[in-house]
Amino acid sequence: MRPGAVAVLLAASLLLPAFAAPPAPLPERMADTGGGTQLITAVAPDTGSTTGTVTWWDRRGGSWVRAGSAPARFGARGLADGRTRRQGTNTTPTGLYGLPYPFGVERAPRGTAYPYRPVREDSWWCQDNGSRSYNRWTEPRPADCAAAEAEHLITYGRQYAHALVVAFNYARPVRGRGAGIFLHVDGAGATAGCVSVPKGAMRRILGWAEPAARPHLAIGTAGGATAVTRY
C-alpha cells in the first residue's frame, strides 16, 4: 500500500470516535425504573451539590423518551444515601421512590390525573418521632405531634402551591430517618431535603403524570456510590 494511502486510513481511524453512537437515554442505563412507563429523574453533579436537573420520561415503543426537564434544587447540605440518611441533616435522600399523591395550596393544574389533596388551614405533615402519625399528613394535627416537630402546610404557600409526596421512609416509617420529603415548587434557595423545581415545571409534571403509568422519582448523582444509575 502506498504511504499516502496509509496516511489517509490513519486519519480516518482517528475520526471514528466522533461518530460513536450517543449514550442510551438515562432510564435505560438505570438498575431499576420502578416498573412503570413514566419516570422522573433528579440528578446532581455530586453529593455536595445543591442544584441539578429534573427530567421526566415516558416509555414508548420499548424506549425511554424525554418528556421535559427543568433546573432542580436539593438540600442545603447536598444529597445523602437514602439508606443511611438521618432526619434533620438538610440532605436530600438518594434512591428510587414512588409518588403516592400530589397536594397543594393552589388548585390542581389542568390535566392533573392524580387525586389531588387540597391544603387547608388544619393540614399538617407530622415529623415528630414520638407520634403515631410520623411522616404522615394529618388533619388536624394530633395531640401527640408537637407543632414544633410538624409542618403547617398552608404557611408554605409558595413552595407547596403544588407538590408531590415522595415515598421516602413512607410505607413503614423508621423513626429518625426523615419525614416530609416532597417534589415541590422552588422557594428562595436550597431545600431542607426535598427536591424543588420552578412552578411552571411543577405544573407541567402534574399535568403529565398518570397514576396508571406508575411514575417513580429517582434521585441521585451523576456518578459514584450514589449515582442515579445504581437505583
Distance between the termini: 52 Å
SSE order: HEEEEEEEEEEEEEHE
Per the principal axes of the C-alpha atoms, what is the gross shape? globular
- Main beta sheet strand tally, sense and closure: 6 strands, mixed
Strand order within the widest beta sheet: 3-2-1-14-5-4
Radius of gyration: 21 Å
**What do the pLDDT scores average to?**
93
Q: Structural class of the secondary structure composition?
A: mainly beta
Unreliable spans: 6-14
Number of contiguous helices = 2
Strand content: 25-35%
Percent of residues in helical segments?
Answer: under 10%
Total strands: 14
Give a description of the structure.
A 6-stranded mixed sheet has the order 3-2-1-14-5-4, with no helix packed on it. The chain has a 5-stranded mixed sheet with strand order 7-6-11-12-13. Strands 9-8-10 form a 3-stranded antiparallel sheet, with no helix packed on it. The protein has 2 helices and 14 strands; from the N terminus they run H-E-E-E-E-E-E-E-E-E-E-E-E-E-H-E. The model is unreliable at 6-14 (pLDDT under 50). By secondary structure, it is mainly β.
Highlighted features:
231 residues, mainly beta, 6-stranded mixed sheet, 5-stranded mixed sheet, 2 helices, 14 strands, 29% strand, globular
In brief:
This protein has 231 residues and is mainly beta. The chain has 2 helices and 14 strands, in the order H-E-E-E-E-E-E-E-E-E-E-E-E-E-H-E. The protein has a 6-stranded mixed sheet, with no helix packed on it.
